[in-house]
């Protein structure tokens, strides 16, 4: 049901003449804008640009599937752009002064290692799909956005740091879950 709804949006993007790679580039630019907004301590602007990042990230794949124009390079471009986007957003948060910068850097490393673990399992281990784990990228983005929004109105509660602590813990847990899954899959092959 979810995929069918996203395909409808993908068909709309095709009618507008948008390509999946263009949408991926737009997602990356929105992540850069989010990071710059966070860095300038405009937390609500950062949240808004993160929402646009997530929307564009959903639309690139939906557009590729809707037009049956998905390519291996497009998939690689999407994954690499996602990592750059995560860097921009979390570096902006780390440099904002709204949190202790160590939490931003730790969350960044944790998210990257979870993604790298999946990539290594799929490329080196030839596992068809290692997208397992306690929390995905979208859920982590939602946590960060909620934390940033609450931080804007209740800074004394340290909501953004709490969100990043949860993102860190769930990302490291996801990396371990992916390693365990890869080990079991490879042992059973």
Description:
It is a single chain. It is built from 7 helices and no strands. By secondary structure, it is mostly helical. α1 (2-15) crosses α3 (43-66), α2 runs parallel beside α4 (72-95) and α5 (101-123) packs parallel to α7. It has a single domain (2-188), classed as Four Helix Bundle (Hemerythrin (Met), subunit A) (Up-down Bundle). The mean pLDDT is 96.
Q: In percent, how much strand structure appears in the residues?
A: under 5%
Tell me the number of strands: 0
| Helix content class | over 70%
Which stretches of 5+ consecutive residues score pLDDT under 50?
none
Annotation field: number of helices: 7
- Total discrete domains: 1
What is the approximate shape?
A: globular
> What name is given to the CATH topology?
Four Helix Bundle (Hemerythrin (Met), subunit A)
Task: Kindly report the name of the CATH homologous superfamily.
Answer: CDP-alcohol phosphotransferase transmembrane (TM) domain
Structural class, from helix and strand content? mainly alpha
The main sheet comes to: none
Q: First CA to last CA: what distance?
A: 32 Å
């Amino acid at each position: 049901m979810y995929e069918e709804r996203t395909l409808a949006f993908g068909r709309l993007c095709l009618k507008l003449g948008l390509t999946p790679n263009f949408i991926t580039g737009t997602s990356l630019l929105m992540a850069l804008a989010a990071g710059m907004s966070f860095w300038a301590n405009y937390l609500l602007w950062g949240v808004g640009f993160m929402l646009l990042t997530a929307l564009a990230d959903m639309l690139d794949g939906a557009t590729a599937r809707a037009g049956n124009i998905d390519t291996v390079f497009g998939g690689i471009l999407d994954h690499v752009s996602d990592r750059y986007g995560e860097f921009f957003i979390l570096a902006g948060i780390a440099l904002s002064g709204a949190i202790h910068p160590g939490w931003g850097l730790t969350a960044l490393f944790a998210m990257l290692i979870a993604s790298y673990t999946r990539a290594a399992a799929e490329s080196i281990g030839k596992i068809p799909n290692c997208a397992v784990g306690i929390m995905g990228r979208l859920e982590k983005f939602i946590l960060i956005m909620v934390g940033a929004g609450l931080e804007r109105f209740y800074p004394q509660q340290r909501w953004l740091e709490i969100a990043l602590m949860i993102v860190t813990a769930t990302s490291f847990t996801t990396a371990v879950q992916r390693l365990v899954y890869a080990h079991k899959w490879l042992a059973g092959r």
